[in-house]
Amino acid sequence: MRRLMFIDSSYTLSEIRERDLSHVLNIRLLDGYWDRVISAHPLDMRSTGAGAEARIGPTVVEEIDPHHSFVRGRFGRYAGLKRLSALNAFLALFGFWRTLVRLAKREGVDAVRAGDPLLCGLIGLCVARATGAKFVVRIPANNRMIRASTGEPMQPRFTRSIRVEERLEHLVISRADVVIAPSSDYADFAVSNGAKPGAIHLVRYGAMIDPRHLIPAADRPPPQVPGLEVRLAERPWMLHVGRLDRIKHIEDCFDVLETLAGDGSEAGLMLVGDGPMRAALEARSEKAGLANRTLFLGNLAQDQLFALLPTATVVLSPLTGRALAEAAYAACPIVAYDLDWQGDLILDGETGVLVPARDSAAMAAGAARLLDDPDHARAMGAAVRALAIDMLSPEAAYRTERAAYDALGIAP
Fold first, then answer.
1. What is the DSSP string of 149-190?
2. I want to staple 206 with a disulfide (CB 3.0 to 4.6 A). Which of 71, 280, 320, 397 is the partner?
């Protein structure tokens, strides 16, 4: 039997359940390659809103099914240490690590995979070293490029500084037995951080996308989002899907909206996702007199998202990952920055509009062209879907990921 420990902070267990993201867990088994998976999130407990959970206390282990369990870390270990938040957080992470080591030894984990080279990577490396398991790290972004753009660390609450992050990334990546990268740009980032020769494996996003997104746009149902049908009929809508965070350059989408509105366009902006910038963006749209043209839809379940995507007249992608792939599968006309991996999929004038990074005026001009020429927009949408089906094939992604794990030399 082959057993994998999968440490990742992309989604909490509550988010997976509420947003119908079971595919996120299912793909970790890699279509039966792994007989048993232990998923783990270091900061899993929802601390606010409906269904709030205790953020202080011991690590929790939940059994998902006979092949899968989920380890849920917390933000602090002891209620009596609430005022010493840094110490409490450290104790919680230490307890989380000890739980993972105990489980890995008990179940004979063969490999530990981390979803990033920072917090998850450090925990994963320490678990692997303590148990003798092989260590795998996935590169989810070109962190150096993002930090150069924002001037801030990727995980400021954990690392506190860019310098610490850079040293941590090199420590984690240089010690990985296998490095998984979804694009050549990310692979180059890994090489610059000391990845071992031959350790890097290119595994595209395809397997990470919910299979429903492969359904042709014409065969998808209308979106079941309360009150949205009337709003969709009001005007053409641009769409952004992703976290409302500075590192995603979400504010540039509002630059586009304001530019187009100033030029007389009736287009509006829909945003799927949530994040720390939401309140500021809502205030900005109110101040600009564009609140009636802005829809904040929050996080949507997969059945809602895959139905909503084809309703967008244009998709704006300053910096997105799997959301860009999902938009391409929906045959959406896309305007994207030439940033990160996006130029691999968006070929300017062939599969969409690719503009210089952080040039929101160029993004607005590209969106205007697609809004004004529906035939051209449809052609771009059809072309990007065809490329996505080929380049981001789930079957190819499964094949390359299996090859990456095969390189570890783990017997079935």
1. HHSS-SSHHHH-SHHHHHHHHHHHHHT-SEEEESSHHHHHHH
2. 397
